[in-house]
Design brief:
The chain is α+β, with helices and mostly antiparallel strands. It is built from 1 helix and 5 strands. It has one helix at residues 59-78; strands spanning 3-5, 10-12, 24-27, 33-37, 42-46. The radius of gyration is 15 Å and the shape is globular.
C-alpha cells in the first residue's frame, strides 16, 4: 500500500480509501490497517486471523465504509432541528461529544 512518510507517521495518499487530510497510520500485511483521523474523531484498527493470498483484500475497506455510514447516521440523528447540517462534516460535528 503506497504511503507517504511523515514525522514518524504514515500519511495516506489522496487515492487511499482511508484518506483524509488529517489522517495518519499504516496498512499492513494481508489488509490490516490502523489509523486515526483527528478531523472526524475516528480511530480505526483492523487485523485479521487469516490472510487472503493472491487476491485484493477489501475487508478493511468494507468495514471502514460501514463505520463511516454509521457515524453519518448517528450525526444525522443528533443534529439540532433546522441546523441544515444534514450529515455534513464540520469541525464541530464530529463523533467526539
Amino acid at each position: 500500500m503506497p504511503v507517504r512518510i511523515g514525522t514518524g507517521f504514515g500519511l495516506p495518499m489522496p487515492d487511499a480509501y482511508w484518506y483524509s487530510p488529517a489522517a495518519f497510520g499504516f496498512g499492513g500485511m494481508g489488509g490490516s490497517l490502523g489509523f486515526a483521523d483527528p478531523g472526524s474523531g475516528l480511530a480505526f484498527g483492523y487485523v485479521m486471523n487469516r490472510l487472503l493470498e493472491g487476491v485484493p483484500d477489501t475487508r478493511a475497506a468494507s468495514l471502514l465504509a460501514a463505520v463511516k455510514e454509521a457515524m453519518k447516521l448517528y450525526l444525522d440523528s443528533t443534529a439540532p432541528s433546522g441546523s441544515g447540517l444534514g450529515g455534513q462534516s464540520a469541525p464541530s460535528r464530529t463523533l467526539r461529544r
